[in-house]
Amino acid sequence: MIRTVLGVALAIGVAGAASAQTLTLMKGIDAPHYDAQRTTWGPTSDIVNMFQDTLVALDWDGRTPIPYLAKSWIISEDGRTYTFKLRDDVSFCSGKKFTAEDVVYSFKRLKDPAIKGPYAWRAGNIKELRAPDPYTVEYELEEPYSELLLQLTMFTNVIHNKESVEALGKDYGIKGADGTGPWCFVSWQPRTEIVLKRHDAYKWGPSMYKNKGPVKFEKLSIKIVPEDSSRVAAMMSGQFDITHQFPSQFIAQAKAFPALTVTDAKPNFQLLYFGFKTTRPMVSDRRVREAMSIAINRVEIGKAILQGNADPAYTFVDPDALDFDPKSKGIVQEDIERAKKLLDEAGWKVGADGIREKDGERLAPKVYYTANANSARVAEAVQGYLRKVGVDWRLNPWDSTISSVKMAEQDYEIWSVTVPYLSAGDLMNIYFDSQNIPTPNRMNWKDAETDEWLKLGRAALTEADRAKYYALVQQKVTREHLWMPVLNINMHQVANKKIKGARPHMIYQNTFYKGLDASL
Length: 520
What we know:
Elements: H1 2-12, E1 22-27, H2 42-51, E2 56-58, E3 65-67, E4 70-75, E5 81-86, H3 100-111, E6 126-133, E7 136-141, H4 148-151, H5 162-168, E8 183-189, E9 193-198, E10 219-224, H6 228-236, E11 242-243, H7 251-256, E12 260-264, E13 270-276, H8 286-294, H9 298-306, E14 310-312, H10 336-345, E15 349-350, E16 356-358, E17 361-362, E18 366-370, H11 373-387, E19 394-398, H12 400-409, E20 414-420, H13 424-432, H14 448-459, H15 463-479, E21 483-489, E22 492-496
Parallel strand pairs: 1-10, 1-11, 18-19, 18-20
Antiparallel strand pairs: 2-3, 4-5, 5-7, 6-7, 8-9, 9-10, 11-22, 12-22, 13-20, 13-21, 14-21, 15-16, 16-17
């Protein structure tokens, strides 16, 4: 396969790189829509962040919020009120002037129960939003939120134009969406192409970029190319300018290819995991969940499937992430004999065909995942390991445009996604707070102690207190084996060498982010 792809690329030669007018990007996965407030989906976020903006941006270090639509802010001593001073030179793609009323509207919409925003918690528990003048927002919380500024950098909290939302109705984020970003939404053909154009008035890029705007290309064409080999050949033959979904097994070849530049996004926290829906009888026993988690070989999976472009994950939170708890290390210890013993203790006995049974039921959990290359191959590898201990995973892959919907139906024992996150608190709050049942808390994990620790971590006024409570959560959910962590996935941006200044960003699988410094 490698020789074939390389041969095709060399035969075709490098041609068709970006003109001064159009920049071409390539993705392997599309999204069900592009309304940021109604999804957790990474394939939505990377496009949304190009045409809509947040109050604050995340610096290259992955930890520091910096001014964006808000040029400054003051936090009250009790940590409950943030007073944001907004830029007065910002406009939407439609030409409408951006003001404090747009901020108030956006967060009220996010919190509206009708939206059912799965990431509404990222905006904190809002008590009241006030706009005392056109360029000031008073953002009052019910209780302190230790990571509010960090969370406000996320795509969930982009600012919307009320006129656009109401005009498009149910088609908002499908047929269009207005924004203040460096690019403007033009069209979306599902599973095929998203087209954006330059926002000519844009000049308010965050300080992390040398170019504050506008972008240096008139048009941005993002094509959906699901097949791994097609994306490899397309990049090597110069048909596209940039991709952040280059198949991991070909990264070494891309690095050696003279016409391409491969850049790692650092820091980067992306966990590929399998989660257990604990309310399903087959996986309600902690011993069964632990057995599945310790019966696989993560090092082999990382080497065989991702060619070393991933690290084995034995903890839920990456050791380099903010507020990682060292005591959560060592809880997941691979041991196939212990796995068999745990399944025996749980009452699952090996049947005539090698698959375990209990009360006339086979240990054959239904597993849902997105049908992209990494998830599919990892799921198949895990399936092979687990058959050795008498577990028969029934694999159910779904296209990316409907996989989030199918997972929301919760008709499975196990599901898998690769989740990007910013910190330990971010990951713990996303998944383990009972208020996030049924999604993204698909485990249906409802535990008063976990909820209380999360609440105390969110409300902490010191870094030490925040870290202490998030550590307790990490230890508990890991001991319960609510997830099977498998791999920490590296993220690469592959670009034609003619493209300069396209530094990859780590935020929520974006890499390209705003694209302000990208040029020929």
